[in-house]
TrEMBL record:
Membrane-topology descriptor: Multi-pass membrane protein
Keyword Transferase attributed: no
The organism of origin for this protein: Sander lucioperca
Name by which UniProt lists this protein: Anoctamin
First-listed, main subcellular location of the protein, grouped into a coarse class: membrane
Domain Anoctamin dimerisation: 30-246
Subcellular location, record wording: Cell membrane; Membrane
Phylogenetic placement of the source organism: Eukaryota, Metazoa, Chordata, Craniata, Vertebrata
InterPro entries: Anoct_dimer, Anoctamin, Anoctamin_TM
All copies of domain Anoctamin transmembrane, residue ranges: 249-830
Amino acid sequence: MLYEFHSVDLPDEPYFCPQVEFNNKPDSLFFNDGVRRIDFILVYEDEDKKDFEKRHTRRETFEASLMKMGMELEATQSVNEKLMFLKVHMPWDTLCTYAEVLHIKLPIQPNDLSSRPSPWRFFSCITKHFYPNEELITKEAEFFTAPFEKKRLEYFHVRDKDVFFTAAMRSRMAYYILSRAPYEIRGNIKKFGVTKLLDAGVYKAAYPLHDCRFNVKSQEEGCPNERYLLYEEWAHPKSFYKMQPLNLIRKYYGEKVGIYFAWLGFYTRMLALAAVVGLCCFIYGYTTQETSTWSKEVCDPEIGGKIVMCPQCDRECKYWTLDSTCEASKKLCIFDNFGTLVFAVFMSVWVTLFLEFWKRYQAELEYTWDTVEFLEQEELPRPEYEAKCIYERKNPVTGIKENVPYTACGRCVRVSIGIGTVLFWILLIIASIVAIIVYRLAAFFAFSTKLRSQDLKELQTLKEYVTPQMATSVTASLISFVIIMILNILYERVAIWITDFELPRTKTDYENSLTMKMFLFQFVNYYSSCFYIAFAKGKAVGYPGDPAYLLGKYRNEECDPGGCLIELTTQLSIIMGGKAILNNIQEVLWVKNLIFRYCTSAASEKLIPRWEQDYQLQALTKLGLFYEYLEMVIQFGFVTLFVASFPLAPVLALVNNIFEIRVDAWKITTQFRRIVPEKAQDIGAWQPILQGIAILAVATNAMIIAFTSDMIPRLVYYWSFSVYPYGDHSNNTMQGYINSSLSIFNIADFSNNSKPMSTPYNITTCRYRDFRNPPGHPRQYQYNVYYWHVIAAKMAFIIVVEHIVYLTKFILSYVIPDVPYAVKEQIKREKYLTQVILHETNLKLVTRRLKPFDDGTLTRTEVNLTQEEMELDF
């Protein structure tokens, strides 16, 4: 029964699709008879030219197939007489048939389990203002549901046949038929599906109808005006502070859209806590930047002003004094302080709480939205997959022979080509990163030559200018952002082509495959420059007498004397902020629809029927909400992976998401045609991706604090030199730290290739950032004991922090169950009722037919008869 529609034969005689005139009811959702509801709209241009004869034939054949499959059609011409609108209606019997095919769960009995009172009920007088207006969006009654079975219709809770199947269910079933109705059969080759007809231009559009205009209530009798309610209580800017009406979103747009907005809303609420803590950490760093001992020493003319630093490039670079980085050191203290360490540990715990509580919330939505048993075997193959099933194989699960589009060898070839293409593009990203590194080296040389003074007298004024490190970091970050955007645009098409070539079986398989490809690429694309600054830059530079070179030509880039953390912060803020601004601008500027709306008068809009108003809206892309998920997951990576260097990341993400929810809501409600509703149990492949990011975030933040920030060397100095040995901590001020963190180099030991072209007459040594023995030492310029103490402290810090955080994550994931106890009870109750209501009657009939003898045995005839009857019953 599941695939009986595949046997639809093409009509031998011309079909008849009635055409009617517009009935002057612009908000009508029915055929001209006012009885049959419109479930879908097909739009085409009625061409009379011979060039379009093939299109006309395909369209006639397709529409005839729809009618043979149980649909009813009615065509009407547009107001401007250029387009034809084909209205599609599914009768009751057809709805029942395909509701069973799609395993749609429908109510069987009202929910008789008492719900637990909300812990926030005592604050209802306050919290009610943050929820949608209950007078407009009323709470629907809760029912236990079961997969629909046509022959057991009397056991389902059918109050009114017209509303038993919601508009979203009807649209979903209609699209299912439209996607599989044949339009051409030649021998063993069968062509079917409205998707291919849209690609070929046979139809210009296919969409379900919105129930009314978003800003005006429909006056039609029986219209629920759900779009109007969604706009007023969800998408309108005035409702930005209100909770989302998720049940209405799900009812109107389907579970797939509902679960996205549920996840986005939950993520945003959890971000509020992280943003508060991050903001407090930033305020603490900002208020202590002037009192920080190391920044005061850098800015002190008697300390930093007298420390002459070695040139950071060969020949052209000059000597410079440490106080020229005074302002940069103060900014660094905002982000590199003990509060950042606490915040990094907090975020590692926060991300675990976020994922665990989301699992619980998702389990509640799965039960409420009837997706608990949305299993893989219930999801039917994609039409593109079915169209290419030319090979036969035995299903390992059912043991039944089925058709597949490729052999095992062909499958391996397709996957190998896909993997190879993805690896090629990842190598292309790495090549672009190397090119940016080369730019950094060349730009630093140019900025150093321009900004460095000619003599020591002018060195004191350099602190008024931008340092070469900062100028190089900002320009390189901007260039990196531009390259990221360009590569994203190019790779997007390649990823879609590869996934189409692999030919996944179901739509979920298709989206999961594309998700992994796109995320893997964008992970490398967005984060590679951040990983370079955090863990590679300044780590292998040698020392002034023996510098390290990249490609044997470019001297490796060094960090600022305060470390590379401020550069990582700059990179994050530019990429994260620029991406958020660009995405929101793209989402808001829907010029075509805005021009159409404001140029079309209200009077003329009233004369345009509902289907023509929707035709003027934007069509949602085939990937639907894929890019919305991708944008948020990339943001989630920025918030968690590198938060130790940028405590304001959760604040920026929170502000962006508050706008993101409303912009997405406004866009989907006012700018797009109504989306074909789809089932979804969870957020799909994004769930394991988020879990992977959460695990990686612990390691990256621990390593940032250990290797990128100056936290560990300060702590080693604090406990080794600053603290008095007998417990007297009164002079615990970190004085002398800057001097201890800089090694000494004799300028006479410069090689000819690296020796500066000009050297002041009054200096014999310069300083550089490292822990090496001074000149004259038996092991001069080799790492000293303090260096190994610092390395040991860094490794110990990483091991201890990671183990503590991972243990905490494990305990939290064990203590917090994925499914709430109340939801488990309701699921068990629903399964019990399904068994009793739908199957117990048949079991009683079987028992009544079995009449045993006194010894409790049955005759062979009675047993056989009973088995046959049981087979008929079931």
